[in-house]
Amino acid sequence: MTEPNTIRPRDRDAVLQALRTGVVPRTGQQHIQVGRANEVRALLTDIERVADGGSGVRFVIGDYGSGKTFFLHLVRSMALQQKLVTVHADLSPDRRLQATGGQARSLYAELMRNMSTRAKPDGGAMTNVLERFITEALNESKTSNQAVEVVIRERLDELTELTGGYDFAEVVAKYWEGHDNGNEQLKSDAVRWMRGEFTTKTDARNALGVRTIVDDSNVYDQLKLLAVFVRLAGFGGLLVCLDEMVNLYKLAHTQARNANYEQILRIVNDATQGTAIGLGFVMGGTPDFLMDPRRGLYSYSALQTRLAENAFAVDGLVDYSGPVIRLPGLTPEDLFVLLCKLRHVQASGDPEAYLMPDDGIQAYMAHCQTRIGNSYFRTPRTSIKSYLDLLAVLEQNPDRGWVDLVGTVQIAEEVNPDLEPIDGGGESDGWAESAPAASNGPRFAAALSVASTQDDDDLTAFRL
Ligand SMILES: Nc1ncnc2c1ncn2[C@@H]1O[C@H](COP(=O)(O)OP(=O)(O)O)[C@@H](O)[C@H]1O
Ligand SMILES: [Mg+2]
């Protein structure tokens, strides 16, 4: 296996910290990614098409723990590399594509908070995008000897043809005005409008002289405008990553659910007919979200016809050209490679500093299997986490060898939160209650307490 030799300390820490607290890393995924070559290739084609002014939509479907979130983050990193702007958010009961009580605006605002560019990969990039638009316009005004205002107006004209585009263009023009006059308030009001943070039309009119705001009824239209706008600012296009789509399937009211599916239908139609410009969607969800005939996307017949999978792609035959991408769970071989990569990352890329030989990793996997059965590789989050805890202990206690310790690692089985009753109200934390293992002495307490901070939904016991 070929691992990149150098691992930046920043990537190392981001990867290890995230995985030890049970979340998927936002950066550095390339160091630990296993498998998924075809899926990555398929999404790269989408990204290139979007960067070329086209559109695309994919549903990344897999069981709990199969790697949807990981894959979405990976795709997002690839898109940033290809000079797209990305926005991403998890759906939740309070964040939906379509709503009447503010939940759609709230999804939009979350997406905008997470807006990223290659130079600003951790979110909050709206101002950078606006500044870039201004810089591009200034450059063009120099080369074409036109007044900046004229250049800006001309560029914004492209927006005014789209639904809601007139006010969108007005707000960008206000940002320029603020920029030109040194009016910071005007600039920040424009940014707030773009980020969907105005909650009343009156406030928006007073601050910016526009009559509309981003609200529940126009989220998708705003995303389409934004995609055109980021291209005017010199980026390739916009990639929208939506995770935890299962929350739509969980909506108890048929009408509310269908209103959301109707938006998804618009997205699918625009993407397949090529009517959206520079806009791609990637949505992660479970098989139920897609296929459940009563509440899934398939319950909405127009979507069922459009998303039906290729009937020939069965028995090991694959087709990555459709809108649905299936993520099979990781295999034991994948997990082995992954644990090797993690060892490599932990050692900052120096094989001399590996804390365990391959045999140790095999022994750890065998131990996981006896403790939690096959879910150790199918839903590998806890196996990965405990493994990193083990490495941390080995690192800080060089007098203890892996042979002693591997068999003592306690790992609790993960429980899929989606298997819990749907209408139970509040979201469960989704983790199995596990009996804490008896502690075999205080020796490693310090090292282990590091692992159990920050994540109170993690009841995995790791005691030595
Ligand atoms: N292709 C992959 N390469 C490396 N690690 C992966 C891969 N897919 C998943 N993982 C890891 O497996 C665990 C579960 O993945 P996750 O994306 O959270 O699953 P899901 O979102 O489908 O429930 C995470 O710790 C993640 O980092
Ligand atoms: Mg996930």
Automatic annotation (TrEMBL):
UniProt cross-references to InterPro entries, sorted A to Z: BrxD, P-loop_NTPase
Residue intervals passing through the bilayer: none
GO MF annotation: an example: ATP binding
Keywords: ATP-binding, Nucleotide-binding
UniProt keyword annotation of Flavoprotein present: no
UniProt KW Nucleotide-binding keyword: yes
Coiled-coil residue windows: none
Pfam families hit by this protein: BrxC_BrxD (PF10923)
Stretches for region Disordered: 416-439
This protein's name: ATP-binding protein
Native organism: Mycetocola zhadangensis
Lineage: Bacteria, Bacillati, Actinomycetota, Actinomycetes, Micrococcales
